[in-house]
Amino acid sequence: MKKLGYRRVAGQLLFIACNKAMAYCSKARIRQIIRESGMEDGDFPETLVMHVPTINGQEVVERLKQLSPESVVVNGTRILSREVLAAVPVPFINTHVGMTPRYRGVHGGYWALANGDPDHCGVTVHLVDPGIDTGGVLYQATIHPDRRDNFNTLPVRQLSAAIPLMRAALDDVKHHRIQTRTGVLPSGLWSHPTLFQYLKTWMARGVH
Questions:
Q1: 186: cis peptide before it, omega within 30°?
Q2: What is the distance between the alpha carbons of residues 1 and 48, in angstroms, rounded to a whole number?
Q3: How far apart are the C-alpha atoms of 180 and 107, rounded to whole Å?
Q4: CA–CA dist 125, 27 (Å, integer)
Q5: Which residue of 1, 21, 105, 164 pairs with 190 in a disulfide if CB–CB is 3.0 to 4.6 A?
Q6: Of 137, 140, 134, nearest to 122 (Cα)?
Q7: Paired sense of beta strands 72-74 and 92-96, if any
Q8: 27-63: per-residue pLDDT in tens?
């Protein structure tokens, strides 16, 4: 609220509430994307899961040191602390649903379309640093949504495009050839749209 103002945050909360209904209506399309892309949406095996109070807790630091991995894949967490990132001297690699650094933050694919920038509607696999999606870019790819896609299906399309990129990045780690490249400029940080922004963009550009 301090950064964005009360009015904008209220509009974002209204959008999030309304989007629950839209997300429900998108379930069939999401299942179709998962099926056509060959992804799986089953539960992760519990034998491989470690539950912790917070991703930035000491339990995570100690577990990383015990595992001594070659790399750490990050997905869907909050910003990692410097202590966690320093726990093991290996690359932390994240999948971001936007082309960085132009579309850092959230809903990068949506914002690219909302801005009339479809050539940069895509996904990034990048190194993690203490900033918000500011780590070095490893791989990027664009997606090409159609009229069946919307705010809730875009991330699934992006995830499908990101899987081969993550595999390539991990293969680079294995063969000691990992290197960063220039991303899409200029840099920008994006947050949730307000309900008014979403409706305006839907009517003006057909982006929903």
A1: yes
A2: 38
A3: 23
A4: 26
A5: 105
A6: 140
A7: parallel
A8: 999 999 999 999 988 888 999 899 999 999 999 999 9
Report how far apart, in Å, the C-alpha atoms of 115 and of each of 14, 19, 35, 83 are.
21, 20, 30, 36
- Region class of 5: left (phi > 0), else alpha (psi between -120 and 50), else beta: left
Q: What is the DSSP string of the chain?
A: -TTT-HHHHHHHHHHHHHHHHHHHHTHHHHHHHHHHHT---SPPPGGG----S-TTSHHHHHHHHHH--S-EEE-S--PPPHHHHTSSSS-EEEEESS-TBTTEES-HHHHHHHTT-GGG-EEEEEE--SSSS-SPEEEEEE----TT--TTTHHHHHHHHHHHHHHHHHHHHHTT----B--BSSP-EE-PPPHHHHHHHHHHH---
| Contact criterion met (CB below 8 Å) for 162 and 141 | yes
Pairing of strands 92-96, 122-127: antiparallel
Q: In the structure encoding, which two tokens stand for residue 117, read together? A: 């920038």
Structure tokens at 10: 């209220």
CA nearest 107: which of 128, 121, 125? 121
Total-model pTM? 0.94
Joined tokens for residue 66: 């015990």
